[in-house]
Amino acid sequence: MKKKKIGFSVFIVALALTLVGFRFDFFEIAKQIEIYNTLFKEINMSYVDKTNPAELMENGVKHMLSELDPYTIYSSEQDVENAKIYRSGLYVGIGATMKIIDKKLIIDEPLKDFSADRAGLKSGDVIIKINGTLLSESFGQAEMLLKGKKNSKVNITYKRGLKETEVELIRGEKKPKAVPLYKLLENQIGYIALDRFSRTSAQEVESALKFLLIDEAKGLILDLRNNPGGLLQEAVKIVNLFVKKDQLVVSTRSNIEQYNNQFFTQKQPISEDIPLVVLVNEKSASASEIVAGALQDLDRAVIVGIRSFGKGLVQQPKPLPYGAQIKVTISRYFIPSGRCIQALNYGERSSTGEAKKIEEKKAFKTKKGRIVYDGGGIKPDVATGKIASFNLISSLEKENLIFSFVNDYCRENKIDNLSDLDLNPIIFEEFKAYCLSENFSLGTNTEESLEKLFDYSKEENLEGLHTSLLTVKESLKKEKELALEQSEEMINWKLSEEIIKRHFYKEGMYEYSLLKNKTILEAQSILNDSNRYYSLLK
């Protein structure tokens, strides 16, 4: 009886402490909301100039969220409604991705056999009118004009070089494939490229795998390079194609109990024995990393390539008043060994405000006892490259220098066969000169700080310092030239991919990769040498 009383007392104390903690949190939240509400009201009622309450609120929310992580995002009522319309399939587009360069709406990539492609639009074409309306800088409106009901028509005027052309397009709902290419290579090695995790991804990979097994594939390459991820359940299903039923693939962990979940395989695999190599690079993220990481932890595949991106944060949409919404990070992904795949710690930041990288610090074991480490992303078993301290290629792509250079190249050069493309050193020198003439940014903190210091010295009339900084900027230009030269091989590959994509679409880009990419050649070499393959998994 005495033990029962003591147990009940402990329960009451624990409950009281829980309630006190909850009350404190609730009070603090309520207090800050009251302060914010009063502040917001006073600014809008008393400020000397007229204010826009909606704009002030949205800017305030965005600034607040910027202190968290880039995946916690606020969406206005209009954003939410647009997303619902697009997901419904009632409103569809012209079958091309777009980008904005120098305040111009430009075709990034026409998708094969979609309306824009059939009408002859090419990457680099500038859209100047939609249904006779001249485009302003309101590109959000342009996106809405391009989308519409299935089978409806839209007239666009585009410019290629100096020539303007008007075409009528029919909007369609056909969706691009998640598997742009699969085929049987030499020595009975199967190859499957997966570039997204959509609702049909696992089904498409399964179908491709079955065809390759019918063709008596003796090994398989699953290419997840440049795959940004997507639906978690599809990742679990794809792992399940190669791993037995009831195997843990990924778990989510949070400080909030309801967000702690585990995801297991549900079926018997299609092939539990076929030798498997998975390709990843720095743009393989989220669901791609779950697939690669789970197969690595379960010793089911050899991972080849470059360390993956490291996106291990899980988001969930939450409704807000008046139709708005916030997508909030609720937990982290952990793969079977117990490693978290998140690379950046947004709770700890440097003096410049950048999230700190999670260093490799803790060892984990795969199913067979191989040592693997955390630190974010998936580290390949066989590396075919590494990420530099600053990502030059990412900077060049961000400034659209590869895209724009290839636009000019393709206007003057035609490629009839994949194997015909072989960029000579003159092309690289022309690209290097082009980048330097555009004064591209390396994307480093050093350069950003230098530019600010240079501007401040001019504004504050520090002529001696300003002159000295001119010399430093010349040194920086030499550093840029050196960085380009050191990355010549990777730059040539990116230029080649972009050129191939213009002539042979995304499928052709993968075909070209099969011919000449060293990561795929390395994967084939591993699968052709069974002793090496199995030794990598011991």
Number of domains: 4
Beta-strand content estimate = 15-25%
User: In this structure, how is the largest beta sheet organized?
Assistant: 6 strands, antiparallel
- Highest-level CATH class of the largest domain: Alpha Beta
Query: How much is the average pLDDT?
Result: 89
Shape descriptor reads globular
| Total strands | 23
How is this fold's topology laid out?
Layout: H1 2-46, H2 53-66, E1 73-75, H3 77-88, E2 91-92, E3 96-101, E4 104-110, H4 115-118, E5 126-130, E6 133-134, H5 139-146, E7 148-149, E8 153-160, E9 163-170, E10 181-184, E11 189-193, H6 201-214, E12 219-223, H7 232-240, E13 248-253, E14 261-264, E15 276-280, H8 287-297, E16 302-305, E17 313-319, E18 325-334, E19 344-349, E20 355-357, E21 363-365, E22 371-373, E23 382-383, H9 392-398, H10 401-412, H11 425-437, H12 445-459, H13 463-486, H14 488-516, H15 518-528, H16 530-536
Parallel strand pairs: 11-12, 12-15, 15-16, 16-23
Antiparallel strand pairs: 1-18, 2-7, 3-4, 4-5, 5-6, 5-8, 8-9, 10-11, 13-14, 13-18, 17-18, 19-20, 21-22
